[in-house]
């Protein structure tokens, strides 16, 4: 409940002044009659009409109280908010080749750091469709574009390096697969976030061909080069006594093709990042989150329902009752 014309409440001050004035006037004009002995009059007592004599005046003042409430226009508001959401469709392409197990992004390896950062990124989105593509020597879609973030996060948590698909790093195939997932999207902004720690050394589609396809569909690419270049130690496990797993390392050379990833980003209107630590990777996704914001427009509609009528009716009924009492119940005769 709200009051549209709150200035009307100032009239209560005037009403109180009138009430005080009338009270003082009534006392000064009280009629008197001198008797030498009033014992006989006392025995008569007061009639019911005497007790009701001031009621009409009180009811008239009360009717004015309700009239002022009506004048203040009590209203009940019904507010509706209409949201216009302009979402972004995002495909995250994640490298799952063996080199992603290199432990140079403390406290985790490259893959686990990527998964943790992607998880935070997904949790920060509102109404964007997000899909997940993984790749090594081949590529496949784990989750198509979806708003079911719980399903997406569950699938992401289960991502591991696997030997069920061809070994290597097929950047061209992964990019083409990602574009295929997003090309039919009707979203105004379509984005691929491409994470890899290697060079293109596998697959049947050349990265530049895949780039041309992405440009043709107006897809923007944010490419991320993972880890430090150079000689690294790749962990592997051996079966030890009692079935225990024994962790060992073997040397491995790791190198990100920065030139290719930069070209993928620049020619599609995206941006290339280099992430050599977990913190740097978080900053990369924070930057992407800022650049690709979902547009939400809110229109507020408020409808007001007037309730002054009920107070006006009460005021009118009280005044009519006061008039009735004056005329037929407590009428003074000369």
Q: Strand percentage, roughly?
A: 25-35%
Protein structure class: alpha/beta
Count, helices: 11
Q: What is the H-and-E element order?
A: EHHHHEEHEEHHEHEEEHEHEH
Q: How many structural domains in the coordinates?
A: 2
What share of the residues lie within helices? 40-55%
Tell me about this structure.
This protein has two domains: 83 residues, no CATH class; 206 residues, 3-Layer(aba) Sandwich (Rossmann fold), CATH 3.40.50.410. It has 334 residues and is an alpha/beta fold. It has a six-stranded mixed sheet, sandwiched between helices. It has a three-stranded antiparallel sheet with strand order 1-2-11. A two-stranded antiparallel sheet has the order 8-9. The two termini are 49 Å apart. It contains eleven helices and eleven strands. Strand 6, helix 8 and strand 7 form a beta-alpha-beta unit.
Keywords:
Rossmann fold, 3-stranded antiparallel sheet, 11 strands, 2 domains, alpha/beta
Quick structural summary:
The chain has 334 residues and is α/β, with parallel strands linked by helices. Helices cover 40% and strands 27% of the residues. It folds into two domains: 2-27 and 46-79 and 306-328, no CATH class; 88-293, Rossmann fold (3-Layer(aba) Sandwich).
SSE layout:
Blueprint lengths: L1 E2 L7 H18 L10 H6 L3 H4 L3 H17 L2 E13 L1 E8 L14 H14 L6 E6 L3 E8 L2 H9 L13 H12 L6 E8 L10 H10 L3 E7 L3 E10 L5 E10 L3 H9 L4 E5 L2 H14 L3 E12 L1 H21 L6
Parallel strand pairs: 3-4, 3-6, 6-7, 7-10
Antiparallel strand pairs: 1-2, 2-11, 4-5, 8-9
